């Protein structure tokens, strides 16, 4: 089994090799494309590699007891390539997500559209710097999406088990559709929530959690790793039963950090989700618990990009004092317990199951 540090090294090496090759292609077109290659390399050098780790452990949960299979080298290359592909896909999603949300920062640094907006200003170019930054970020995100496909295909090309290759590709395609539509549902809720029945708002927010994050962040990477290993239906199902509730807990933790996280740790401004008007499960629970007057105040302030620090603190206090934070924490604990219970399946390798349990605790107790 590949420990997390060794996996990270393998994924980083694969990314460096791949990005260097693609940078040479961009350079052959024009050296004006160097900033795109440079940003991609820098952006992909960071991150927690959670998706890569879940992909590798999905493979190990199936193949752990058959590690010396004849095709082991090709399979391991496929897993590392798929893990790297997930990281590139995630980078593309973040570039587009920051653009959609008008976010200024990502991981404590300027977001992609702001970086290229700044290049426009520094260069003294004509036209709108903001429009240039947005257009460049759209194209950069599209480029990264295409590169994620190329990485996956390069890894799968060496597999002798074509059924495993097809299953992996189908899972990746399904993930891509689900997360893209989950993003749309998120945008829809931010704009259409006022016209929806009050009693439906939590369920609608939970649907966004499932499709925008839970499946994409954990369930799909696990299933992709398992597919490369030729996992049985029972094994893949056990991993899904672990991955979906854990993915829900993962996103709920992210929602809490989006409101209460320390900017020095998260790399995002305090209360950023409040300024962006995210209609999260946390907000849905708070609205159900608040008095009508408090609910009106929440609705009035939520989504105002000009919220100052005092207004953010008012909203933070209002949401916490109504008990919404405690309820979300209870849901995180319950979903994590449900995920851990799925690891008792006899169809999964025991060592990999223990590693998955450790990673589950890490992703649900994190500070960023």
Automatic annotation (TrEMBL):
<keyword id="KW-0479">Metal-binding</keyword>
<dbReference type="InterPro" id="IPR000092">
    <property type="entry name" value="Polyprenyl_synt"/>
</dbReference>
<keyword id="KW-0460">Magnesium</keyword>
<dbReference type="InterPro" id="IPR033749">
    <property type="entry name" value="Polyprenyl_synt_CS"/>
</dbReference>
<dbReference type="Pfam" id="PF00348">
    <property type="entry name" value="polyprenyl_synt"/>
</dbReference>
<keyword id="KW-0808">Transferase</keyword>
<protein>
    <submittedName>
        <fullName>Polyprenyl synthetase family protein</fullName>
    </submittedName>
</protein>
<dbReference type="InterPro" id="IPR008949">
    <property type="entry name" value="Isoprenoid_synthase_dom_sf"/>
</dbReference>
<comment type="similarity">
    <text>Belongs to the FPP/GGPP synthase family.</text>
</comment>
């Amino acid at each position: 089994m590949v420990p997390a540090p060794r996996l990270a090294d393998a994924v980083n090496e694969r990314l460096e090799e791949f990005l260097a090759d693609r940078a040479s292609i961009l350079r052959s077109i024009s050296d004006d494309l160097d900033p795109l290659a440079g940003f991609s390399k820098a952006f992909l050098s960071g991150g927690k590699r959670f998706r890569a780790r879940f992909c590798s452990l999905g493979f190990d949960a199936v193949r752990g007891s058959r590690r010396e299979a004849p095709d082991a080298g090709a399979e391991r290359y496929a897993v590392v390539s798929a893990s790297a592909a997930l990281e590139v896909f995630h980078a593309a999603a973040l570039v587009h997500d920051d653009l959609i949300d008008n976010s200024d920062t990502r991981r404590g640094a300027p977001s992609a559209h702001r970086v290229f907006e700044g290049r426009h200003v520094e260069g003294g170019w004509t036209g709108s710097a903001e429009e240039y930054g947005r257009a460049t970020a759209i194209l950069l995100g599209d480029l990264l999406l295409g590169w994620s496909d190329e990485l996956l295909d390069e890894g799968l090309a060496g597999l002798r088990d074509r059924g495993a290759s097809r299953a992996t590709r189908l899972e990746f395609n399904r993930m891509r559709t689900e997360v893209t539509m989950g993003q749309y549902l998120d945008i829809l809720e931010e704009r259409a929530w006022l016209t929806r029945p009050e009693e439906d708002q939590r369920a609608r927010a939970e649907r966004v959690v499932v499709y925008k994050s839970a499946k994409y962040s954990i369930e799909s990477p696990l299933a992709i790793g398992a597919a490369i290993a030729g996992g049985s239906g029972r094994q893949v199902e056990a991993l899904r039963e672990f991955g979906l509730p854990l993915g829900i807990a993962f996103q709920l933790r992210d929602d809490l950090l989006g409101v209460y996280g320390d900017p020095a740790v998260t790399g995002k401004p305090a209360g950023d989700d409040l300024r962006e008007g995210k209609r999260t499960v946390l907000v849905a629970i708070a609205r159900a618990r608040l008095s009508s007057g408090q609910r009106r105040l929440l609705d009035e302030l939520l989504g105002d990009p000009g919220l100052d620090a005092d207004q953010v603190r008012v909203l933070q206090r209002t949401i916490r004092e109504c008990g919404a934070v405690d309820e979300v924490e209870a849901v995180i604990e319950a979903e994590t317990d449900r995920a851990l219970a799925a690891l008792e399946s006899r169809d999964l390798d025991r060592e990999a199951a223990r590693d998955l349990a450790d990673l589950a605790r890490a992703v649900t107790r994190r500070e960023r």
